[in-house]
Amino acid sequence: MKHLRLFSVIMVLALCFGVAQGVDAKKKKQRNTHKKEKFQSLKRVEECNRVIGAVDEDCGGGEILTPKSDDEEVFKSSAYMPKFLGGDYAMMRFINNNIRYPQTAADNHIEGKVIVQFVVEKDGSIGEVKVARGVHEDIDQEAVRVIKMLPKFYEPGRNAIGEPVRVWYTMPINFKLQCAVEAGPTGDYAYDAKQVGEEVIKILMRDINSEDDINQMEKDTEALQKKYEDFYKARGGEKEWKKFNEELEKLGTDPVFSKRFEGAKKSLEDKAHKLFE
Question: Is 249 helix (H, G, I), strand (E, B) or coil?
Answer without folding.
Answer: helix
